[in-house]
Amino acid sequence: LVRFDHGGGDYEWIGTYTAYSGSSIRSELLRTRNFRNFSLEPILGKAGRNKGMALFPEKVGGKYAMVGRQDGKNLFLLTSDKLDQWDEEGVLLMEPAYPWEFIQIGNCGSPILTDHGWLLLTHGVGAMRKYALGAALLDRDDPSKVLARSREPVLTAENADRSGYVPNVVYTCGALCVGDRLLIPYGISDSAVGFATSRIDDLIATMD
Fold it and tell me: From CA 205, how far away is CA 208, in angstroms rounded?
């Protein structure tokens, strides 16, 4: 869920989520300007069949932009002239590079604009289906350029957090900037919720 800037002081809260009919999935938009009235709209086009699509909070280069896991294993950057129509499969943004994300990599919510560029939280799936959180930094004007990324996980299940309905998993669907810090709510093994905080500059300093 992002506070989308249409320009000229026009803001709207827009969320992306996966809808399930009982037999198939598709991506949809949740939109509101006042949190009293909501609209639910399908994401049209062939890109909308995939899970994990996350909207940038403003246009980039005059186009709407999203990050998505179009092939189930890698991260792609998608752009569109229309908010509800995504026909292109996008360009490859990131592939698994380290053991903790060897099986697949995905985004964890929408990119967050910082003084350094777009901060994108990621999740990696490694051996034994262990999920961990990482991060990447994308260029402000051309987010297809990955400036840096986590060599090691920034958050992983440890000790008692490794046990639960789905063990060895930490996962988040987004974070919030609070001053110079990042607040990250995250799920723990599908059994509990935790909160982590970090200074944005400290987090970016851990990336290569």
Answer: 8
Residue located via tokens 């799936």: 125
Tokens 């752009």 correspond to what residue? 79
Instruction: State the pTM of this model.
Output: 0.93
Q: Are 122 and 136 in contact (CB under 8 A)?
A: yes
Q: What is the pLDDT of residues 154-194, one digit of tens each?
A: 999 876 667 777 788 899 999 999 999 999 999 998 888 99
- Is residue 4 within 8 A of residue 58, CB to CB? The reply is yes
